[in-house]
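Lecture 7 notes: from sequence to structure.

We start with a single chain of 281 residues. Read the sequence below before looking at the structure.
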Amino acid sequence: MKKIISFLFTILLFQFSYTQLQSPVPSPRAKVSQKVGLVNINLDYSRPSKKGRTIFGNIVPFDQIWRTGANQATSISFSDDIKINNQLVEAGEYHVYSVPRENSLDLVIYKKTDEWGSLKSFDESLIKARVSSDFYDLPFSIETFTISFGDISNAGASLNISWDNKIAIFVIDALTREKMLNSIEETMAKNPSKNDFRKAAMYYYEENIHIDKAVKWIDIAFDDSDDLKYWQLRYKALINEKAGKIKKAKKYAKKGYEIALKSKSPDAINTLKILNDRLNN
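Now the structure, written as tokens:
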């Protein structure tokens, strides 16, 4: 019996001795996924905090390679080719390094390697793109290092790197227009569905191209003889408005608003009311 008790005590002591204290991570890892145009962009980086320190030129020295975050190097992936500040970056996964200057930030898209953290120097053959952005002063201080996407549209977005009272903004071109026009042409040459006509019409509407085709295609997608929903009528109203067919636009907007009122959806009612007010003023 004593041997059994001793054995159990030994197991408990062993488990206790290997219990680890759970504590907050100083620079927590963050993952950001963003769809830009037709491209999926995934970002993985660590987020250190200012903690009363001077950042650029001090914690992050000028003219030295920075891992663009903390801990392991920041990584980014693109599901299709894109351009950053007009430099082509092919689809793939990369490390993101940067070199802070006194008034600007160099951003380096680098072939992914097994290197951990920052680099002593660049292997020029591994650089896939190197672009620069001015630092802009912010009227406030950002405590935690942040990489974010902004100004998202069909065509692209901005990649924003901000910390302390500085922000650098890089322009992402998702190369959407050429891809979409080719895709629409190929689809329309085959056996397009009503949904294909809707997507094509709305893309032309949003990009303000071939509005006459957009009118034709939205009428195929949502025939007037159909029992249309308020959002379908809204699409028809918007496209006809852009085509200068105001009388038709008003008709569709009015009918859409009436259906929205019956649906009792606050967002639908508000959206259609705004459209009606604009068309009737």
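Helices lie at 2-17, 176-188, 194-207, 211-221, 230-242, 246-263, 266-279. Keep this in mind for problem set 3.
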